[in-house]
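hi! just following up on the protien thing from before. the input was this:
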Amino acid sequence: METNNNRMRELVDLLNEAAKTYYQENREIMSNYEYDKLYDELAALEKETGTVMANSPTVRVGYELLSELPKEPHDSPMLSLDKTKDVEALKDWLGEQKGLLSWKLDGLTIVLTYRDGELVKAVTRGNGEIGEVITNNAKTFTNLPVRIPYRGELVLRGEAVIRYSVFNRINGEIDDVDARYKNPRNLCSGSVRQLNNEITAKRDVNFFAFALVKAEGIDFDNSRERQFEWLAGQGFETVEYRAVDSSSLAETVADFAGRILDYDIPSDGLVLLIDDIAYGESLGRTAKFPRNSIAFKWADETEETTLDHIEWSPSRTGLINPVAVFEPVELEGSTVSRASVHNLSILEALALGEGDRITVYKANMIIPQIAENLTRSGMAEIPAQCPVCGGDTEVRQTNDVKSLYCTNPSCQAKKIKSFTLFVSRDAMNIDGLSEATLEKFVDSGIVRDFADLFHLPEHKEEIVSMEGFGEKSYENLTAAVEAARHTTLPRFIYSLGIPNVGPANAKMICRAFGNDLNRVAGATVEELVGIDGVGEVIAQGFQAFFEDEHNQELLDRLIKEVVIEGGTVDEEAPQPLTGLNFVITGSVHHFGNRDEAKAAIEEKGGKVTGSVTSKTNYLVNNDTASGSSKNKKAKELGIPIISEEELLELLGQEG
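and the predicted 3d structure came back as:
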């Protein structure tokens, strides 16, 4: 059966590739006779096995646009796994039992339900108790069977993932560096939770089963491995696993570790599962973890090195981020010489200074971080002037996080980053204007503000003579600029670079004011906070932007260059956090500060308050085991305490 399923996958890939080259690239890689022969072979195998893959050319999943993703509670809570980084602790945990060691895939966990051989429901993990129904999207997963031979009710869990090769391809098609996706997990989360499953279909999402929850009438000989084998026979790809005991465990862990750097599927560790179903279930569970499985997280490889200097990197908003530059070291198979320090609070906590001996590591074997400062000189100088424009800097504190900002509104770094946002695909969508090209235009004085982009023909000779440009490139660019003159109000508002205003809440704000620019530009804080999904931080920044005299002049010049079409042609962005209340406490690592995290939550429809109450849905705290008063209050009220990583999953961030 598994051999047949492998052949079916091979045929599906061959036939889909042949169709793609024929219809999209106007070339043939096989004759019609050969195509028909392979198609008939596939159809016969599907009939024989009762398994049909979602991407089979014999079936076409209809595309559907939803207004929102319905939410649904899970029949039983989906708990996190206890974890260790110690192989000896892993061996002690397994004891005399046989186990299954598998990759811990880093994507989005999905629960699937099949009845009468058909996929009838797919639900995301969500917060472990309530998930989002994404059935139509799951039917577009590349390797997922939509029809299986088993006719009873089957419930299984698995991970939806986007391979690194696909992630790199998608990012490679995006010219704007800032618009690229940060990692495959965020891209996968956003792809799986789309309201339009045609978008999901284009993202090449894969599904790997890792747990069978229910299959009535099937005898698995009390073995999890038999369950995996049975699922494979039904047409599912299971997570790669190895049978182990305490004597072979260390060697098998080492084998997995040796392949992680070249493994195309994102993974952040391993999972060890007890094979004996009855014994594993008899162990029960704690409030947070099942006792029949445990996660093994890679022990971070650290190296000692010398800090050379702190580099200060300005952004579009004026925030100047400290970056540690150190003597190069080899980590996880690559040379590393830089690590973000994120903000002044972390810089001071590490007491960094030039010449300090530091230890560095790669978080999840990917992102360089400073683990420890061994000498702690505390001699790093905070620049009084912006390293790009020379303007004055100032330290601003939000809650307990200090950050450095450039106060010069005409800072060159701010300009370049602002122009990059202005021309990006979700804004004015001017193709051919990379950050490097914009930098040339700004440096040469061709472009001083947004309106100047619509006057490039006045500088034709200078542009054509620039390195990397020619007549054809110039014509393509000016054509893209002319096409961008016709836009929608949400795109226009987003393109202005108003702090914390992304594409989603630009649409909400414009819709609330009838897509009337004058009403939008004159909106008060009180009016803005009345819009679902717009909080105090966004509202104050929005009003301040339009009250600024310099911005008013910029807007007056720009509005003469564009035609804002009525309504919005963009599909409404999903608001996954609508109706949910959050409290944020402790330090943050992914976001620059807690205000940025708050803005991200508000952009997705959620609300952020300062204290934990019975109305709070989540407390965000990277130290989930902390004994802080907010943690204690959340535990008393039964409110989930989630890490920043779990918050990112809820946000479905794509970068």
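The longest strand covers residues 319-331.
Residues 79 and 289 are 6 Å apart (CA to CA).
cheers
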